[in-house]
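Thread: "does anyone have the structure for this chain?"

Original post by V.I.:
We have the sequence but no experimental structure in hand. Need at least a predicted one for the grant figures.
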Amino acid sequence: MRLFSWPLVSLTILSLAFNIVASEIMLKNGDRISGKIVAENPDSIVLETVYAGKVTIARVHIDKIVALPPPASAPKPVAPASTATTSANAKPTSKDVERDAPVIRSSSSFAHRVRRIVSGWDGSANIGFSYTSGNANNITMTTGLRASKVRPQDGFTIYARSLWNSNHGVQITTQNAFWGGARYDRTLNRKVFGFVSYDFERDKPRRLDFRSVVGGGLGHRTIKNDRTELELFTGAAWNRTWQAGSDSNTPEALAGFTFKHRLNDRLRVQNAVTYFQNVTDRVEYRLILDANVTVDMTKKVGFFISFGDRFNNDPLGTAKKNDFLFTTGLKWSFGKKK
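Reply from O.Q.:
Generated one for you, tokens below.
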């Protein structure tokens, strides 16, 4: 009885342990049965399975009994850590990564923005050059650019012109001037628009180092159809001038118009006039005129005649009041023709 009692006690202890956890019974023929041991005696074991209920297995067929590990418990929800006590070893969630990750702008996105900025412009550019030697030793170069970009709610216009002349026989520059500007329009309704503008000018023979004019106001689209456009505008500006002698800051009132007309598919006329009145001195005023007549020979190349005039009734020193520029030559067009 003593020899029999010790194996029985050991078997009883093991059976209690197996009752705590699920077990897998490996039979001598190689089969495996998983379940929970609910009863046993020296001759058999009763196993409760999920798929067959209670199964009685004779011990003579059992090779060994293996305790299975307990099933993994469901993960406990993790309370959101405060910003002040976040663990250094805590792994960020997908939402944290999405929230905290820096925005990376790809080069393709940047290229797309650049294309949006440079695309959609219509206009023309020209350059003229002449050289004489012998009895007359002169070099003359003129350049011009005018472009516009029109969108449903706004639009841009830029222009620039320059004139340079030199007598290379005696190394004297007789003319070195350029002027230009830009305007941004914002549509307020079908006819009315607001605008901001910037104009600049330099003229060395007139001893004008640089003139910078910032303006803004309202405009009216008086005529707008497929062939003709006429815009009237008025507003105010601030004139900052650097010149020989004392510099000046002048408030000005401005008014003007732009006119475009297409005579046919090849011939176009364009004119822009802006008048600046010194608010503090009625006698002092300025006028800027730019006019162009263009004839298209191909879609890109054409012939142009350009007039430019800048009038200042109160020039510095002995400088003349009026500067007139006439140029003609070939021009190159870009953008889509309307």
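V.I.: this helps a lot. The first strand starts at residue 23 and ends at 27.
O.Q.: and DSSP finds three helices and 17 strands in the chain.
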